Automatic annotation (TrEMBL):
Name recorded for this polypeptide: DNA-3-methyladenine glycosylase I
Annotated Zn(2+) binding sites: C14, H27, H181, C185
Organism: Celeribacter halophilus
EC numbers on record: 3.2.2.20
Domain of life according to the entry: Bacteria
Length: 202
């Protein structure tokens, strides 16, 4: 399977983003660039949980609806959601209406607050799982790595839900804990430059 495609601007990009201009913007502007903002980290781990069994395209098209539904993924606010909020969200046609996944976001918000108290920020925790030493496989991008398995195990031990190894690796890819742009993708070097300038929170 081809790992690259050439867009209308003549630049090579990772083949997975060829579907739509919105996908290309996400690939170009977000995916693979290091993130230390707690709200964005929490949003992404939650949205990856919603993606479980679905495609990221489905979630990306609904992302603004998810942000509105979950108060811009302010985990301090979401942790206070109750059964009435779950009932409300189950009626929201703009998101994925899955009771277990909705409940998981609320649960995970409470766990995120605990993690913030323990580590000072979510970023300080997640960046202990930077996995750049695990090279992209020559035949393509893996679904999981040893680092994503360890992250998943740690999160589950802390009570998080919908955080399997595949979900965790997709999160790591998106938030720049690894750079899985194809080496010949026009944005591989840009992501590398961003990472070189990035100071992981410690």
């Amino acid at each position: 399977m081809d790992q690259l495609f050439t867009a209308e601007d003549g630049l090579n990009r990772c083949a997975w983003c060829a579907r739509d201009p919105e996908y290309i913007r996400y690939h170009d502007e977000e995916w693979g660039y290091p993130v230390a903002d707690d709200r964005r980290l929490f949003e992404k781990i939650c949205l990856e949980g919603f993606q479980s069994g679905l495609s990221w395209w489905t979630i990306l098209r609904k992302r603004e609806n998810f942000r509105a539904a979950f108060k811009d993924f302010d985990f301090h606010t979401v942790a206070q959601f109750d059964q009435a909020d779950i009932a409300r969200l189950l009626q929201d046609k703009g998101i994925v209406r899955h009771r277990g996944k909705i409940a998981a976001v609320i649960n995970n918000a409470a766990r995120a607050r605990e993690m913030e108290q323990e580590f000072g920020s979510l970023a300080r925790f997640f960046w202990t799982y930077e996995g750049r030493e695990e090279a992209r496989h020559i035949e393509g991008v893996p679904a999981t790595t040893e680092t994503s398995k360890r992250l998943s195990k740690d999160l589950k031990k802390r009570g998080w839900k919908f955080v399997g190894p595949t979900t965790c690796y997709a999160f790591m890819q998106a938030m720049g804990l690894v750079n899985d742009h194809h080496p010949d993708c026009a944005h591989y070097a840009k992501a590398e430059t961003a990472w070189a300038a990035f100071v992981p929170p410690r």
